[in-house]
Each structure stands twice: as C-alpha cells, then as structure tokens.
TrEMBL record:
Protein name according to UniProt: Very-long-chain 3-oxoacyl-CoA reductase
Residue spans crossing the bilayer: 13-35, 42-64, 84-103
A GO MF label: oxidoreductase activity
CC annotations in GO: endoplasmic reticulum
Length: 330
C-alpha cells in the first residue's frame, strides 16, 4: 500500500486528478448497471463515491506520511545530504532541540544566535556528547543586510546539506499594532528576524546545495500563519510569509533535489510560548523536533504534532464557513 501511495504521489498532477475521476465514473457506471439509477440518483451516487475515494486517499496518505513511510525508511536521511547543518536560534527551545537531534545523527553543526556565552555552552555540550565538529557564529538577526556578508564568508567552505531556519521573535504581549512599544524599531526588528533571516540564509546556502543537487531547508513557521491573530498581527503575517515562501521554493526546486519543509506548529514548550510543562496538546521541543526530522522527505508542509495537525485540518474547514469581518463594519 505504501509503495502504491508513494508511486501515486510522484505522478504529475493531471494523472493524480485523472485516477480518482476514472475510479469514480467507473464505479458509478457499474452501480448504474446494477440498480438502474435515474439522473439525480446517478449524480448523487457519483458525488458520494467521489467524496469517499477522496477521503480514503487522504486518510491513507496521512497514515503513510506520519507512520508507515517513517517505518519503511522512505523519509530523508539528512546525513546523506551533506556533512554540515546550520541552525539559527540554536541556544534554546526548538533550535536547541534541533542542534542536539542533528548532532546525534552525526552532522557537524554551525550554531547561530545572539549570546556568545550561550553559544559556547551548547558547543561544549554537543562536542562532548556527540563528537562532531562545530562552528559558532554570534549574530543578531534583528540587524539588517549588513550581517550577511560576514555569515557568507564563514560558511563558504562548508558542505552544508541542511539548513534549519528557526530563529524568530514574537510580541512581548498581545497589543494593537499601532500601540506596540518602540513601534517602528519593533516592526523593523521583527521583519528582519522573522523574514529577512530565512530569506538571506537560504540565499547564502542554496547555491551550494544546487551545485551538489541535494539539500534540505527547514523553515519554522507557525499555526498563527493561518489562524486569526488579532493583537499579534505582525507576528502572524511574518509567519504567513515563511509558509508561502517555503511552499513556492519547494515547487521551484522539486526537480533539483532540494527539499523545502514548512513547519506550522501550534504551541510548544519554550521561553517564547511561556508554556513550562508539556501535555498532549503542547509537546516538548525535543519530541516536536524528533517528529519534524522524521517527516523530512515525507511532508513538505506540516504542523508535525498530531493534535496540531488535527487543529490545522479543523482551521481549514472552519475557514470555509468564516464570516467576513468587513460586513460587520458600518
Ligand atoms: N514555542 C512555540 O510555541 C512556537 C510555536 C510556533 C512557532 N514557533 C517558532 O519557533 C521558532 C523558535 O521558537 P522557540 O519557542 O524555540 O524560541 P525560544 O525558546 O525563545 O528560542 C529562541 C532562540 O533564538 C535565539 N534568538 C532570539 N532572538 C534572536 C536574534 N535576534 N538573533 C539571533 N538569535 C536570536 C535565542 O538565543 P539568544 O537569546 O542567545 O539569541 C534562542 O536560541 C520561532 O521562529 C518561533 O516563531 C514557536
């Protein structure tokens, strides 16, 4: 079943659309011969069978991408893409979990965040625990274009197969856009940190990946990119950029051997979320990252954690019925 699904998924979209249409028409015609439907019954039967096939397909695909594909090893082995990985925002939360998980898989690491002390601490830990090579680059991503020449210089001789664009900042507290403390500086910092960083890091690392015809770029977005987030408008919008940018780059590069993965998680235990204890709905960064790494090569856009994936699906259904806010404005 998994092989059939993988094969089917790799077909061009016209064939993928053709298969369910042929199946639906075939089954309905067969039922028509058995039960001699009138026109309305024929239409109803076609609709129900079509919908049934569609649901079944998505159900099997979901099972395959989350569990069967992983068990069969159809996901991507990041080590095979290049010996180095780069993690931005690596000294806490999700970035720290990525650093440990990648080093555990034998990847050498470029560690990037602001605090030199925290970088040296995690570098020591990783070298002791996993015996891999490391390089630290202290950098503040709220700064503008001027930081990227230096970063490019530091990375130029490394065979980078994996880039984790994780760094991001949120609001200190929910607030009207116009009332944010230090408004204009805050807007600039957030756009630089959440959007410019992954644009420029991708621009720096991608040419090497294209030359080697392999690589994975993981961009950490958020469920807020598709949820309504009043009083966090700029954060939600910056994460929508991350998601859209990643999906389109994935399409641009699917023929070139480069994987782009857009992560759109809900709450995860971290300093940023201010959630201290994990539960069924809020994973630890370690649990989240383990699942996210397993999903590389199987899921190009995912909320990763099962309850977040279900929430994601519910949001999509809910958006179909959403009221238009503009209609309320008199
Ligand atoms: N936690 C959640 O619930 C959640 C949910 C959805 C999406 N996300 C996204 O996941 C990513 C990581 O979030 P997190 O919760 O793991 O955050 P976190 O625990 O606050 O960690 C942030 C990391 O980024 C570094 N950092 C912060 N500002 C930086 C800057 N200006 N320049 C360089 N490094 C900087 C921090 O180290 P230094 O302080 O040393 O610089 C730290 O290593 C973010 O993009 C966030 O939007 C988080």
């Amino acid at each position: 079943m998994a092989t059939i699904l993988k094969l089917y998924d790799s077909l061009p979209w016209a064939f993928r659309a053709g298969v369910p249409i042929l199946l639906t028409v075939g089954t309905t015609t067969f039922c028509h011969h058995l039960f001699h439907f009138n026109f309305l019954e024929f239409l109803g039967c076609t609709y129900s069978i079509g919908l049934g096939f569609l649901l079944l397909y998505h159900f099997f695909l979901f099972i395959y991408r989350n569990w069967v594909g992983v068990a069969l090893g159809h996901n991507t082995d990041l080590k095979k893409l290049g010996s180095w990985a780069v993690v931005t925002g690596c000294t806490a939360g999700i970035g720290e979990a990525y650093s440990h998980a990648l080093a555990k898989r034998g990847l050498n690491l470029v560690l990037m965040s602001r605090s030199k002390e925290k970088l040296e601490k995690i570098e020591r830990e990783i070298r002791e625990l996993y015996q891999v090579q490391t390089k630290v680059i202290p950098v503040d991503f709220t700064e503008g274009m001027e930081i990227y020449n230096g970063i490019e210089e530091e990375l130029k001789d490394l065979e980078i197969g994996t880039l984790i664009n994780n760094v991001g900042m949120s609001y200190p507290f929910p607030e009207y856009f116009i009332d944010l403390p230090h408004g204009r500086k805050f807007y600039r910092d957030m756009l630089n940190c959440n959007m410019m960083s992954l644009t420029m890091m991708t621009a720096i690392v991608l040419p090497g990946m294209l030359q080697r015809k392999k690589g994975a770029v993981v961009n950490v977005g958020s469920l807020t990119s598709i949820l309504d987030t009043p009083f966090m408008a700029l954060y939600g919008a910056s994460k929508a950029f991350v998601d859209k940018f990643t999906q389109d780059l994935a399409l641009e590069h699917e023929e070139h051997g480069i994987i782009f993965q857009s992560l759109i998680p809900g709450y995860i235990v971290s300093n940023m979320s201010k959630v201290k204890k994990s539960n069924f709905f809020v994973p630890t960064p370690e649990a989240f990252v383990e699942k996210a790494i397993q999903a590389v090569g199987l899921q190009s856009r995912t909320a990763v954690w099962l309850p977040h994936q279900i929430l994601h699906a519910c949001i999509h259904i809910g958006q179909f019925f959403r009221r238009d806010g503009a209609a309320e404005v008199r």
